[in-house]
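Morning F.,

Quick status update on the modeling queue. The single chain you submitted on Monday has been processed. Sequence for confirmation:
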Amino acid sequence: MLYTYKIPSLLLLATLHFANPVHAADNAIISWREWSPQVFSEAKKSGKHIILNVEAVWCHWCHVMDQKTYANPAVAAAIAKNYIAIKVDHDANPEIAARYRAWGWPATIFFNSDGVEIVKRAGYIPSESMTALLSAIVRDPSPERVVDAISITNPRSSLTADDKARLIAMHKSSFDANYGSLAIAMKFIDPDSVEYALLSGMRGDNDELARANKTLTAALKLEDPEWFGFYQYSTHGDWDHPHYEKIMRTQTRHIRLYAQAYAATQNQAYKTAAENTLIYLYRFLKAPNGGYYTSQDADLIQGQKSTDYFALKDKQRLALGIPRVDEHRYTKENASLISALTRLYSATNNIAIKTEALAIGEWLLANRQRKDGGFNHGNSDNNSHADSKLFLADNISAVAALTDLYEISADRKWLKQAIATADIIRENIFSSELVGLAAASIDKSDPLAPYVDLEENILAARVLNTLHHYSGRAIDKTLADKAMAYLTNSAVIASRYTEAGILLANAELNRDPLHLVIVGPKSDTNAAALFSAALANYQSYRRIEWWDRSEGELINHDVEYPELAKSAAFVCNDQRCSTPIYTAKEIPEVIALIEGIKANR
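Structure tokens below.
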């Protein structure tokens, strides 16, 4: 079994996990403030500018900037004289992370006393350059460049033919034929590009299937050969110069994609990669009292590159210590892990994986769900506490996770929770004044205008549309269309290097999902086998349900199924339905016939 043979070492490391080596002390020269409307009010009253440092606790160059730049007395004095300093951990604030993601970590953003962005800088800034920049802004606080906001008129819920063709061309031209992945200096798996290529390949486009396989195979070089888990990315345009941080977002993306690719191609290397990543998470990021931690640092000693350390074997690493683990347990990361595990369970039928996914779901409900609905980000385990903001990233990831748990368990409790969370998004984040869904609930006291994030709206459009087919509620489709209206704007598309996720969302919102229903008692072993075979399908866009008549009609009981002498499966799409299927081995062939695709078995 996947977990049992690793348990002794996991127990051994339970104490070592927290016995981290001494790290460089956090910089204490600058009086850093938290992000808040009050800070911007103070700046306006005092006439001071604002410097915002957006960092990540796992980020090497963030550590270096703290130690080399912000610890410099001249820099600290210049900031104290003319600026109010704000520091934000991007994992702790999804809205700020979304707003400044393009500027990397660390990101340095300057505002004038009126809260208007003046200058943005990406990456490490040496102390000499920082002092010069601080002085230059004081002399001339006018914005360095003014970028017109994207104007969205006549919002629509589907792509025009021209924009669809443009996105397909962008997808094809952005592929690196030599190394796989995107043709940029940073190598990582772009999940939507790989998923689009995989699904197109399984529909008969051999070039796209080759692209997916090339990227997935090449990306295996980012796997830690000793502890498993995936490093975030590699530089120098190849896969041989990794940055060693292991963040939950990277792990969940790899588990989900490799599980889906294994289901499609039966390539054992993909299955192994997904399972090994889970071994890493169990060993280093699983919290003893429920949920999973956020990340593990790139550096053993903060600010010092750890290339030599990660070249060592297990015992040699342990003798030196373990890179710091960020022990925050955020909703988005845990919900995304649930969705990844449900996909891995579907592909492998490993009951231990299903059990773990359900356990994380129960932990989320007990520790992150607010009493009035929706999910806190994760600063407190107290359910009576309500964060000042609801983040779209947390709550849409929760909708996805809860829907996925319903899919693998057929327990309606999870679908009802997903529906309730979608209602919270509609009540607290939806705004009729915006095209798309904002990154957080809107507060008039916010110093900056609401931000609409493309990646979050892709997820929202896909997840809410799928929920609509499970719930049967038109309001869920309306909310999905709200997100899609932002994605289909020509100006938004023109601003991207590539964005296959829009193509995936567009395809899904304009057709019904592959619908697989097992009709029969949940105590029947043949019905269970049919259900497992249905889950094993690699399709992303699917609706899988198990109807036991003793439980009453399905929540969206849109098809009447005949009463038969034994359990059967039915496969439908928006064009036709199958006759009853009585054996598990028939399901892949029937799906392939109805969908016009390659079978995954």
